[in-house]
Every structure is written in structure tokens, then in C-alpha cells.
Known about the structure:
The structure holds two protein chains of two kinds.
Chain A: H1 5-14, E1 23-25, E2 39-43, E3 56-59, H2 62-73, E4 85-89, E5 93-104, E6 109-115, E7 129-134, H3 141-148, H4 155-174, E8 177-188, E9 193-195, E10 199-202, H5 211-223, H6 226-233, E11 237-240, E12 245-249, H7 252-264, E13 271-274, H8 285-293, E14 300-307, H9 312-325, E15 332-338, H10 344-349, H11 359-372
Parallel strand pairs in A: 12-14, 14-15
Antiparallel strand pairs in A: 1-4, 2-3, 2-4, 5-6, 5-8, 6-7, 8-9, 8-10, 11-13
Helix pairs in contact in A: 3-4, 6-8
Chain B: E1 11-14, H1 19-31, E2 35-39, E3 47-48, E4 51-54, H2 57-64, E5 68-71, H3 78-87, E6 92-95, H4 102-114, E7 118-120, E8 126-129, E9 133-136, E10 145-152, H5 155-167, E11 172-177, H6 188-197, E12 203-209, H7 214-222, E13 230-235, H8 259-268, E14 272-273, H9 280-291
Parallel strand pairs in B: 1-2, 1-5, 2-4, 5-6, 6-7, 10-11, 10-12, 12-13, 13-14
Antiparallel strand pairs in B: 3-4, 8-9, 8-11
Amino acid sequence: MMILEHEAKALLRSVGVAVPRGTLIKPGTRAPRVRDYPVALKAQVRSGGRGKQGGVIRVDNAKALKAAAKKLFATSFGDEKPEVLLADPWLPFDRELYLSVTIDAAAEGYVVLYSPKGGIDIEDGPKPARYPIGAPWKFRTHELRAVLETVEKDFQLRERVISLAQRLVETAAARDCHTIEINPLVRLKDGELMALDAKIVYDDWAHYRNADILAQRDGERRRADKLLRASLEMGHMYVKLDGDIGLISGGAGLTMGAMDTIHQLGGKPACFLDASPGPTSTRGYKPAFALLDGDPDVKVILVSVFGGGTHMNRVANAMKANMATRKSKKPVVFKLDGTYVEQVPGIFDTFGAKNHVSLEAAVKEAIKLAKRA
Amino acid sequence: MSILLDQSNRVLVMGVTGNYGKFFVTDSGGYGTTVVAGVSPGRGGGDVDGVPVFESAHAACNATSADTAMVFVPPHLVRAAAIEAIEAGCKLVVATADEMPVRDTIEIRAAARANGARLVGPNSPGIISPGKAKMGFMPSFCFMRGPMGVISRSGSLSYEGSKRLTVAGIGQTTVIGIGGDPIKGTTAAEALALFHADPETKAVMYLGEIGGTEEAAVAEYAARKDAKPVAALIVGKTAPPGKKMGHAAALVGSKADSHAAKTKMLAKSGVYVCKGLSDLVPQAHNALAAAS
């Protein structure tokens, strides 16, 4: 998961990376403790392209700060509104650089990326120089130096970048970060490097060995509403979409395959909902139904599960138990397949459900029912 | 032939006394997999369905000549179990677990490389050579022996895709689940190289997703003059940008990650690109026809 800029900067500061001494501003703060102007007032959101969406405003006095803060708190970036703003001192610098450490398949692990020209248009410029490391203990300063020699002529700057990169690789490994990106990394007038912005993406699955990640995950759940929270606590992965066919599926690939099939046959999926956190878990289907039953956009529910370790007799029994206590009248279409699928029709007969043999047939039925609703 | 796995692999199960381990011994053993040993620290000396249990991978390999390991331990213990099996001499290690920190996979991959071994997974259904052996929980009836190599980033999609092939009479040499994580024990490029070298594999079906760089490797292979025909299905056409779709790697961050960019790149390299799941079998037929 991605964390906010001010959180990323706090992590960088804790490992000795220079960051601006900023001030956090929460909604309703009457007199923010900003002493020196100008400042860069920055919306703290996770969506990319914040700068291009007007999420960073230069502010020259206390009055302007108040107006700018009001404006930013009222602005939506993607689907999120900032809960907090960061006022960083507006610092003069003479170079804007790009430096990141991220996970890369071709590198079989970590890779360092560096560009001598950083800033908001980094994606449109030439590709950054690339130092593939693999396992973190394989980082060698002389190897990175050889990569940077061709793109960065200023040797004093280059040496500073190299030691900073090493620190970032060590931090990424020790703190389970998928990505640590500093853009821009600037050179101040005195030659020092400073991270004016920072983006850190944590590895969600390292929550058991990193309290920060656990806290982030809890925060994510707190921000979710009650119904979604119950589903997330089962380990489900949920992304809301703009259609009316609520999809309860298992496995990311087949869930997307089902979404695409719905679209191809003329329907619109209401969500990506992967409800198979573990091969033997079936209790998670109840909160998944509750979530979709409670969503007024969902007109029909399509359950599409193809299980190997997930046994279909157990899934069918879970569906039976669930349908017996469910209050919603929204129609449900089933397509179960996989281990022990031969037992499904017998179980479904006991509560009058039908198991569709093909995904296409199930999707067509769901589209028909959604149109009727 | 098949790739990586057949009846000659002597399989060791790490975490054999857990629920998954026990089910695997019975299910996979029944399929034909040669399961020779299990490891469960503290439970050595017993057996699971006739398979002897050892205290360590080292002891198990010494006693049974196991050369392949199936890892069924909780996600936070996978790194330890996989590296133990590699250092005990296993040349193929399959880890299906999801919810594993990427750094752990990086370490296992490095250990495998240093010891001349190979990891398949994590976050993967495993690997099956139909009619011979399987390492994972895949439903056996979805598969049959035949000329198509299958590579998949997703477990459930590999079942759905393989079943469609099987029902249409197209069998598989091996179906390998490379997994949905950003760092893979075996990449699409490596799986393609194995299928390329396998004389029985006539064509390859690749089941991919949005996000990541695996599809670029598939396109690169398909563009080779000596490449075997490749068909591909990429799911996630309807996924919104900037959202992680379950798998850590399935995220449209940049233009290159998108469904449109990937299918265009693959088609340009001569890959038979499926228009959706319903188009899987026709494109598989096209790829096989091009092979003969």
C-alpha cells in the first residue's frame, strides 16, 4: 500500500535522509504554526499526478494559506479528499533530480533508477538510468557509479546520490518497501541533497514484522465503511466499479476474466471482489454478500468460483447456509467449478439453486436479470 | 515429454502434517506424483498416509533421495522452508502460498540461483504435467495430456483456461503457474525457454494480466524466428487504472501496463491474441495449426 507523503518523509528522516521541516495542517486548524513564508502547501493524497491536478499551491502569507487550505480540503483527487495538508518551506535549489528504488522482475529483486532531470514530467522524458541489484546485499557502490558515470557528470553530486541510493536500498529491504521514490530530489544552494517529495509503497504482506504496515492496514480498514470493513477483514480484495452486476469471485485472474466476459457480453461489472483468501475458507462469503446486498448499484449477484484447494462441496454448502439467512431479494447466479464440483448439483437442489456449467451462460443470465431489475 | 515435472521427480513435502500437506499427499499421490518424504519439525519418525516424516529437509533428502520440494507452510515461514529444501539439494521447489512479502521471494530466488535450483511460485497454483504428476491443488479433471504448454499468472484462470482446452480436445504437456507476484521464482521468459526446448510442446498458451513486464518477455519470445507459436489471453480489460486487482503485480500504473498496450504489443509480435475467455479455444487451435 502507498503511504502519504508526510509519512514517507518521516520514514526517510528516520534513516538520515534530509527532508524539509514541514508543518501538518488538519481541517479546522485556526492558526497553523507556519512562521516563514513562502511555503508549498501540499494535499496529502495517495493518487498520482497530484501536482498536475493543482494539489500543490505556493503560499506567501497567512491569509493566503487559509484560503489555499480551504480550497485543497474541498478538492477531490481521484476518489479521495485530503485529510491533512503539508506546508513545506519553499526552498531554493539549483538542480531537480529523480531517484528511486523499486522491485523489478527483470532485476530479480531491487533496482535503482536515476535521472539527472527530475520533476513532474519525469514520465515524458528519457528513461532513467537503471542499476539492477537483485537481492539487497548485492548492492555495490562501484557498480552504481559505473552506471551513473554516463548520465551524471557532476562527480560530487554523483557520489552523494550513490550513498543515498545505498541507504534507500537498505531501507527498502529492512522496512519491506516495494518502492521508495524521491521526485524531485533537489540540490540546495549549499550542495546538499534534499527529498522535496517522497512516495513509499509498502509490502502489504509484511504486516507481521512491521508495525507501520499493520497500522496502515488498520487505517485502510477504518476508512472503509462498515460493510466493506467486514469483507476486508476476511482478506477479500475489493475494487468498486461503475456497473450493476455484483461479482463474487475467487482468484484475481479469473475475477478479471469474469469482469471482461460481463463487459464483452453487454453487461457492466459492479466490482472486482476476490473472496478467496485461503484455499479452505468459506466463511468469508457472508460479508461479501452483505457488502453487495447493501450496495444500491448492485442489481444482481454473480458468484463465479473455480477452485482447486477450495472445495466446491464446501462452497456450495456455504452458499446454502448463506441464502437461508439472507434478507435481500437480489437475484443470485451461480457458476461453481473445480474440486468436488460433482457434489454441487445435489447440494443446490436442496435449496432450489442452479449451477451454470459455463461462465458465458452464467454471465448471460446475470445480464438478463440485471436488465429486468 | 513435459517440463520440470513428471513421475521421476522424488517429492518432499515441507509442512506435511498440516491440513494442506496431508491433503496434498493423498490427492497428488493418487494422481501419480512420486511423494517420498515429508518434513515437520518435532514430528519426525511418524508418517502421513504411508509417507515418512523427517525432522529436516537434509535428513529427508539423505534418506529418500528427494530432489523436489512442495512447500506448504504459512506465508511467513515459506522463505525458511524453501531455502532449507534448496540447501538440502532439491532442484525444484514449488511454493503456492500467497500473502508472502516480496523480499522473501527475492531471497529464495537468490538461494535457488546460487544452488542451481529453481523456484516455481509463489502466489501460484503450482505445476502439473497432465497424466504424470502435479504439485499443487489443481482439479485434475481440468487437464489432459497433449501438445500445448500453458503458462499462467493466475491459479483460477489456469483451471478455467485448461478446462476449456481439455473439453475442446487440446491436451497440455505441462501447465505452470508462474504466479501473480512482482518477483517470480520462474518468469514467463524462463517458462517459455523450457517449453521451447521441450520437443513434445508444439505451441504455448499464455494466460496473463494487466500490469508487470511478463508480457513483454512473451512478445520478445514470439518475435523470434525459431519461436513456437504462442497464443495469449490477457485479462483486466475492464480494470480501472491505478487500482491493484488482487495480485500485487496486477495494476495499471503506466500506459505499458494496460490491456490495450499489452494486446497490441503481443499481436504485433505474432501472438494469437484471444479476444476474451470465449476466444481461448479458437486461438489455441490457430497456434497449434501454425505449428504443424
